[in-house]
Design a protein that fits this description.
Elements: H1 8-15, E1 25-27, E2 49-51, E3 72-74, E4 96-98, E5 119-121
Parallel strand pairs: 1-2, 2-3, 3-4, 4-5
Length: 139
């Protein structure tokens, strides 16, 4: 599914559509009206690719860690996003994480638990001051 102009309410309504459990790719890029993801985002258990670049997201819900099939997450230019949920370390299939242009000052230790992570993009993370020690041990 690809969408522009998505709002918080539209995302919530979309996640309530029966059959989306099989969704593999979701592109909701450049959606300034998207400030939060619903808690039930984790119900998309088949989701492998999630593109949220340029949205106004402030936080990711704790249920985000239920996206166990997620292989690629693109949060580029989500300039209001400064933190990841504690459950983020549960994303053991995540290979690519693009956080360039976000408001992170610190990356949480949970990033070090991403055993499949091979591509971590922090380009233009101008507020980032420190990386967790375990980042050096990632693939």
């Amino acid at each position: 599914i690809s969408s522009t102009g998505m709002t918080d309410d539209a995302m919530q309504a979309m996640l309530n559509v029966p059959g989306l459990i099989c969704l593999r790719e979701l592109k909701a890029e450049n959606n300034q009206g998207l400030t939060v993801l619903p808690d039930n985002i984790g119900s998309l258990v088949s989701l492998e690719w999630l593109f949220l670049s340029g949205s106004s997201l402030k936080v990711l819900p704790e249920g985000f860690g239920e996206l166990r099939s997620l292989r690629m997450l693109v949060l580029r230019s989500c300039s209001s996003l400064a933190t990841l949920p504690k459950s983020f370390g549960n994303l053991k299939s995540l290979e690519t994480l693009i956080l360039g242009g976000t408001a992170f000052t610190l990356l949480p230790e949970t990033v070090c638990e991403l055993s499949s992570l091979s591509d971590l993009n922090l380009f233009h993370c101008s507020f980032l001051t420190n990386l967790p020690e375990g980042v050096a041990n990632l693939n």
